[in-house]
């Protein structure tokens, strides 16, 4: 069975990808320092506790497990945090990626799927946004993803690395079997924050502005079910393993946009409860409309979203969220 090293495999998208890999007949090996990941999400293969900021840790994993490819998720993700503490992002997202590339080269591991982000586009002039749009990230987080993409491109050019960068739009939802789901601490994303107000009566969601140039004034995003996202990684990996020529980067989104209000309405419909909310001010760097042009990924990977209907995203997220909160496990890493 082909082994795949999954850095950040104990995180939200990483754990769903490990499940998708196992289902597809691969053996995932999670490499994670558990700083934001959770050991209990590592269910589909071994865990190597290690840090991408430490080349020696990566060496141990490659030497012991001899993977045929790497899927690289490890890094920080909170955009706001990256603005106030950029060092927290550049060290793992840029430094960690160069360490990984160096050690992969040392051990002759030449296939890589990289977790990039729509944040590399910044405030695109046109939405849906395609892969040729200008790359003008607004935050240190977005810049760290762009630098990593550029380093990967340099390694592809110079040392035979074969890689693809997947630029995610808004990952959402949870595994339909309830085996993994979103667990961020602190949480910053819309859907889990909105669901949390239904459980904790003291909380109210703050809608970040309702005066945007969108049909209802709130920001429009492309929400993709995390299972579809995980399957996109497996599809990209398969293509790399058979030696297919792929573009350097692909958007992973559905091509459909939903406003914040539409999300709150979908939650009300699915749970039977209104989300208590107030209208707050705009959040810095939020584009009004950010939707993927997903033509290329469908063509290149023969992949299409199958789980991303809004009610399914909300329903799976709600099931996961309620269970996590009832079991009081949200803050535990056990
Ligand atoms: N929002 C609120 N209130 C909240 C949280 C979010 O109104 O409490 C709004 C945001 O302003 C935004 C929408 O809900 O308009 C979605 O926000 P998220 O924080 O869930 O997601 P983002 O679109 O900000 O972020 C996503 C990814 C990032 C990536 C970014 C690229 O999670 O990793 O897209 O723009 F960098």
What brief labels describe this structure?
binds uridine-5'-diphosphate-4-deoxy-4-fluoro-alpha-D-galactose; globular; UDP-galactose 4-epimerase, domain 1; alpha/beta; 7-stranded parallel sheet; 2 domains; Rossmann fold; 3-stranded mixed sheet; 40% helix
End-to-end Cα distance = 29 Å
Number of domains: 2
| Percentage of residues in helical conformation | 25-40%
The global form is globular
What would you say this structure looks like, in words?
The structure is a single chain. This protein is α/β, with parallel strands linked by helices and 334 residues long. The chain folds into two domains: 3-171 and 224-252, 3-Layer(aba) Sandwich (Rossmann fold); 190-221 and 255-328, UDP-galactose 4-epimerase, domain 1. Helices cover 40% and strands 17% of the residues. The chain is built from ten helices and 14 strands. The protein has helices at 12-23, 55-65, 79-84, 86-106, 140-159, 190-199, 226-241, 260-271, 295-301, 310-326, and strands at residues 3-7, 27-32, 47-49, 69-72, 111-117, 162-168, 170-172, 205-208, 220-221, 223-225, 249-252, 258-259, 277-280, 289-290. Strands 3-2-1-4-5-6-11 form a seven-stranded parallel β-sheet, sandwiched between helices. A three-stranded mixed β-sheet has the order 12-9-14. Helix 1 crosses helix 7 (226-241), helix 4 packs parallel to helix 5 (140-159) and helix 8 packs across helix 10. The longest helix has 21 residues, at 86-106. The chain is globular and about 55 Å long. The model has no long low-confidence stretch (mean pLDDT 95). The chain binds uridine-5'-diphosphate-4-deoxy-4-fluoro-alpha-D-galactose.
């Amino acid at each position: 069975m082909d082994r795949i090293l999954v850095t950040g495999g104990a995180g939200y998208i990483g754990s769903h990808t490990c499940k998708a890999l196992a289902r597809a007949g691969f053996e995932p090996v999670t490499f994670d320092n558990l700083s934001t990941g959770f050991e209990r999400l590592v269910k589909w293969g071994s865990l190597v506790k290690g840090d991408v900021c430490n080349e020696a840790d990566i060496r141990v994993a490659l030497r012991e497990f001899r993977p045929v490819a790497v899927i690289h998720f490890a890094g920080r993700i909170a955009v706001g945090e990256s603005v106030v503490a950029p060092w927290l992002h550049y060290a793992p997202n840029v430094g960690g990626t160069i360490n990984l590339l160096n050690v992969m080269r040392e051990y002759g591991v030449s296939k890589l799927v990289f977790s990039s982000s729509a944040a590399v586009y910044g405030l695109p002039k046109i939405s849906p946004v395609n892969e040729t749009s200008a790359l003008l990230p607004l935050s240190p987080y977005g810049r760290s993803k762009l630098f990593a993409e550029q380093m990967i491109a340099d390694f592809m050019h110079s040392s035979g690395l074969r890689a693809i960068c997947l630029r995610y739009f808004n990952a959402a939802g949870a595994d339909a079997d309830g085996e993994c789901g979103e667990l961020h601490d602190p949480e910053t994303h819309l859907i889990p924050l909105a669901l949390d107000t239904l459980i904790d009566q003291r909380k109210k969601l703050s809608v970040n502005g309702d005066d945007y140039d969108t049909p209802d004034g709130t920001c429009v995003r492309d929400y993709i079910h995390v299972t579809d996202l995980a399957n996109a990684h497996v599809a990209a990996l398969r293509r790399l393993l058979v030696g297919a020529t792929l573009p350097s980067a692909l958007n992973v989104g559905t091509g459909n946009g939903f406003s914040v209000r539409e999300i709150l309405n979908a939650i009300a419909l699915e749970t039977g409860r209104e989300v208590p909310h107030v209208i707050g001010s705009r959040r810095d760097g939020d584009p009004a409309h950010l939707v993927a042009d997903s033509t290329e990924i469908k063509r290149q990977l023969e992949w299409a979203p199958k789980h991303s209907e809004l009610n399914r995203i909300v329903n799976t997220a709600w099931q996961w969220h309620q269970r996590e909160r009832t079991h009081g496990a949200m803050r535990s890493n056990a």
